[in-house]
Amino acid sequence: MQEFKQPDDWKLVLVNLDHELPATYKQSIVHQFNVDIDSRITDSYQKMHDAALKDNSKIWISSGYRSYEKQQQLFAEEIQTFYKNGVSREEAVSKASRSVARPGCSEHITGLAVDLNGVLENFDQTKESDWLQKHAQDYGFVLRYPKDKQNITKIKYEPWHYRYVGVENAQKMKAMNLCLEEYIDYLNKNQAASH
User: Fold this and answer.
1) Would you call 158 a catalytic residue per the annotation?
2) Which of 20, 90, 158, 181 is catalytic?
3) Measured distance CA(192)–CA(177) in Å, rounded
4) pLDDT tens profile 2-47
């Protein structure tokens, strides 16, 4: 198995349970849409928001960028919730890491991830979710944690969590039915094959 290599493209930075945000990665955080978000994706989000609205679908960002400290707080709170329900400390940590990423391992630290319309388990049953499934890639966004990719992402299905990867990448990922981990692997293999 070849060693993992972060893509050179800032839009494809991989942050997950196995890959913390690289120290060299630079966000450009601004406060817009009532959240903190990377300034490089604000125009794309605005265009997607406006297009959805024209189709009678209202999307809004409920969560964007989260600092390392904020992630520490959320992770600790999630552990405490499971711990209070009578599971062991070890099991509480394990369960918490399925629903809240460890600090430094959440995509929200990139400023490129957005939670849309609140964190609702039934979001995938809304017209807004249907609209996003059909059109998000045309604005550079992908559903980051699809139902059929949980074994790869190691994160439960999150119909509200979208990630900016750029239009070209998003359209390819959608057409090939690849999550970000698979797409980066695909790019790395193709790059290695062409050298």
Assistant:
1) yes
2) 158
3) 22
4) 567 889 999 999 999 899 998 889 999 999 999 999 999 999 999 9
